[in-house]
């Protein structure tokens, strides 16, 4: 059974169980990178074995650096939290791992996805080098070519940087041949992509056999993405306002290239778009979109993920894979998030945020200094896109806090990159407006009625300061005082 | 005499004096864009005529939107301040113009240079369209091809967007044929540049003759760049620290591509670099570098500017133009600042800043909410570069203020894009470090001894907050109180 998926006979001797693999290769102080994004293609057996061995030893395995490629699954985070992780790169994780990051027990570093790939490739991170990359695959052919599952995320960079590679071949999934395009950017060479659907690389991964330390067969089911919730009325309204902006501003052509955000808002936006044909160029897309061939002409993504309750769409995608995979290209995010390609394709991007200030600066990663998830590809898309739309609900915690704030004390995306702000209240086209004019428009069109008065008061106070982009800590503290419940 | 420089006989009837030109084409409510960057190639006669007519009328000409391409000259700003300018794009200017921007009399909007070009091309800014582009040139050949002077800045985008173009042919300068490369990015098409010196476009501008409204002959001398001062010991030390970082981190290869910053620091850095051969890919370069052929292998820039006191270098460049122009390409900044090309060439960039916070966020444009110059191309280079070095003196106002601050209340470049911070005190390599580790390193290696204790106190206070990137307004205010002189 297991050799049906490992056709290269020279690699069969490397098939081992996960416990043996971890015992053989995970010495104390190891640095390890895992594939997977939005819960998709996150290795399943190695994390379980790490947890089991940690339990057996009575103390956690000592991991110098843990690299993930994106948001993971609850199981992954639970397993990895049994280990003593010293430093972690990208996405703080959930539960205990995130708490340790905020406590400062884990040294955590976040990067834009495109930058991350490059720093991993160049060996700049992790300091001291990468020992092991663990990646999920669905098939290894006669020549040793490896077919990944539904994510290519940071895989090529991790594989190149790692001294050893462990491949988890997941036999619960079908063999997913033909949907991938593996291309690595070369210095001083244009990336030759001119169209969302264009393939320019290989349909599989090639890894030097000497680098492959172990092949672990997995029969585990894919978990849904831990980071996203199902859509609500709020996302429906925000999506409607995004569409209204596109139409009224004249930017809603028939052939737009869209990065539609992630999670529930992304689902709503594609559902409601009146255009018959759109192209999607993004870092993560719900597998549901792979079925929406009447709406999505073609799609390029680093990952196809499954929202909770949407497993049936994934099953249908698997069943109709040969037909549906024609319109979809899964690429590593050094390509999907490439500044070069995003600029060239004139992408309209939707960036979600935790809060946005009156001039348009957005915080996408921190709440009161505590990391939430991470910045993801926000700096890639917002910087290089044709139009950047920052979309968010106008309030948080059941209306207790305004997400439109006088000042963001943590800024990930600056006002210079934000063209439009959208909430469920409305949209504000900020292009060509000075900071103070932006502020007036955001307050009047996007903020929640419960906070409009206090935001106006703040702005009236600082507007007297005789400055181009005035800020006042005192006025900000007055605002905080007045909106307290 | 004047027709020596306008060889196309069909264009000779368009040669007019500046006063007539302004009377004919500058109706009230006009929108106008001027070429020029770092004081170079800023039109001279039209601004003077605008000032003269404003004086004559007893009230200022009414200008709906004034677009400049970069920092200008004192004369330009003085002339334009005679007009009633409603809105201004890019670089707040000096003197009275800047004051009006901060007072809010002029609606001022700033963009990264690469973004600006694109928004002008697409007609997004200025709202209501661009009526006139005024550009400086040195020659028009028999076929009407136009040779610019030593800057291409935003010229192709402005010319494309404008309904009418006014060409100032400057006969005080030599004919500068052969140093330019005019190429416009096309949607869905790679920019084919693979090397700093590669030419991919035309050596001159082509403008539809029907668009040319007037040709004004100018015999005015070029002014030096208003924005920059000559170098001091401080810049010398900062440059030494940048070089020390490059060498100790192993990033100082023989073939590095450098964006060396602007003004006095840039001069110092190139002077002191031990490498025999470097390539320079930048938006503005001092004309002095054009003579440094033993050090600079080749150079690509949107503009060659002249620092005060360095006019002799420009004269030498003019004299040896045919030989020296072989190693230099002047491109529009939609190319020099293209995210695509900067990434591809793996540029090491030096970004100057007004202040930087303990996590690495940089403010490059505002002091207490008041605009200083503008963001320029900071977001282009810092985002796309291979390594981003933020360089600044550790203090301002003769040591009164620390430029290393607990919090930047205006952020243009976020921590995610800042790899290294350098002051005259030392350098901090922040790559792969968490926010709190970054803060410790910046305090210990880069801050001024007069402020180290208070910065440490701030950091010790917020470090107790149990957050990944803690901030505290209260601790910040205590810091401000304690460092007051």
From TrEMBL, chains A, B:
Q: Where is the Acetyl-CoA hydrolase/transferase N-terminal domain?
A: 25-181
Fetch the InterPro entries from UniProt. AcetylCoA_hyd_C, AcetylCoA_hyd_C_sf, ActCoA_hydro, ActCoA_hydro_N, NagB/RpiA_transferase-like
Question: What biological process terms from GO does the record include?
Answer: acetate metabolic process
Cite the SUPFAM superfamilies for this sequence: NagB/RpiA/CoA transferase-like
Pfam families hit by this protein: AcetylCoA_hyd_C, AcetylCoA_hydro
Start and end residues of each Acetyl-CoA hydrolase/transferase C-terminal domain: 316-458
Q: Please name the GO terms that the record assigns under molecular function.
A: acetate CoA-transferase activity; acetyl-CoA hydrolase activity
- Protein family membership: Belongs to the acetyl-CoA hydrolase/transferase family.
Name assigned to this protein: Uncharacterized protein
- Organism of provenance: Caldiarchaeum subterraneum
């Amino acid at each position: 059974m297991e050799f049906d998926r490992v056709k290269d006979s020279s690699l069969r001797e490397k098939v081992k169980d996960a416990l043996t693999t971890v015992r053989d290769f995970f010495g104390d102080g190891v640095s390890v990178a895992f594939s997977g994004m939005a819960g998709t293609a996150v290795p399943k057996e190695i994390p379980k074995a790490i947890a089991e061995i940690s339990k057996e030893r009575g103390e956690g395995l000592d991991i110098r650096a843990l690299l993930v490629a994106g948001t993971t699954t609850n199981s992954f985070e639970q397993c990895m939290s049994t280990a003593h992780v010293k430093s972690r790169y990208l996405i703080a994780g959930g539960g205990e791992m995130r708490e340790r990051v905020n406590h400062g027990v884990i040294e955590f570093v976040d990067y834009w996805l495109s930058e991350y790939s490059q720093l991993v490739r160049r060996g700049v991170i992790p300091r001291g080098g990468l020992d092991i990359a663990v990646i999920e695959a669905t098939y290894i052919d006669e020549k040793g070519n490896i077919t990944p599952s539904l994510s290519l995320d940071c895989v090529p960079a991790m594989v190149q940087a790692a001294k050893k590679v462990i491949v988890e071949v997941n036999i619960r999934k079908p063999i997913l041949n033909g949907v991938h395009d593996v291309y690595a950017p070369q210095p001083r060479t244009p990336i030759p992509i001119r169209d969302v659907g264009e393939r320019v690389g290989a349909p599989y991964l090639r890894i030097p056999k000497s680098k492959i330390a172990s092949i672990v067969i997995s029969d585990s089911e894919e978990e849904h993405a831990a980071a996203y919730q199902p859509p609500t009325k709020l996302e429906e309204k925000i999506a409607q306002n995004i569409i209204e902006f596109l139409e009224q501003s004249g930017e809603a052509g028939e052939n737009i290239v869209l990065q539609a955000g992630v999670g529930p808002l992304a689902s709503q936006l594609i559902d409601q778009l009146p255009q018959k044909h759109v192209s999607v160029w993004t870092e993560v897309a719900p597998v549901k979109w792979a079925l929406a061939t009447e709406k999505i002409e073609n799609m390029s993504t680093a990952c196809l993920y499954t929202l909770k309750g949407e497993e049936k769409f994934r099953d249908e995608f698997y069943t109709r894979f040969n037909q549906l995979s024609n319109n979809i290209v899964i690429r590593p995010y050094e390509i999907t998030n490439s500044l070069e390609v995003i600029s060239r394709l004139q992408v309209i991007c939707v960036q979600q945020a935790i809060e946005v200030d009156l001039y348009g600066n957005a915080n996408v990663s921190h709440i009161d200094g505590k990391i939430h998830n991470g910045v993801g590809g926000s700096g890639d898309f917002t910087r290089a896109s044709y139009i950047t739309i920052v979309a968010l609900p106008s309030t948080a915690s059941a209306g207790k806090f305004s997400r439109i704030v006088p000042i963001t004390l943590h800024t990930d995306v600056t006002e210079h990159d934000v063209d439009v702000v959208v909430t469920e209240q409305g949209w504000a086209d900020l292009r060509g407006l000075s900071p103070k004019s932006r502020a007036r428009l955001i307050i009047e069109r996007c903020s929640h009625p419960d906070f409009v008065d206090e935001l106006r008061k703040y702005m009236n106070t600082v507007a007297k300061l005789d400055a181009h982009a005035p800020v006042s800590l005192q006025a900000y503290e007055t605002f905080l005082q007045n909106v307290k419940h």
